[in-house]
Design brief:
single chain, 78 residues, mainly alpha, 3 helices
Length: 78
């Protein structure tokens, strides 16, 4: 196994962890708080935005890597 394999695996695991954390954080906020309270509370809005950005960026990054792995920054050089 090459070093490049471990770099790709590490990157993918952190992307998956970010997507899971972001989605579960948004779902947790929405399930445990009424929507009207969530959007009027400054902390609710800030945490929702943090989780939404984390989840959406991680998910977008995973999808982009799956669609076109040739443009990956972890491409092997010869």
């Amino acid at each position: 196994m090459t070093k490049n394999f471990w770099v790709k695996l590490d990157s993918l695991l952190f992307r998956i962890a970010g997507a899971v954390l972001g989605v579960s954080g948004c779902v947790g906020l929405l399930l445990n708080n009424p929507f009207q309270v969530l959007i009027t509370n400054m902390y609710g809005v800030v945490f929702f935005l943090i989780f939404a950005v984390l989840g959406s960026y991680s998910t977008f990054s995973i999808i982009k890597e799956l669609i076109d792995p040739a443009e990956s920054p972890f491409e092997e050089t010869k």
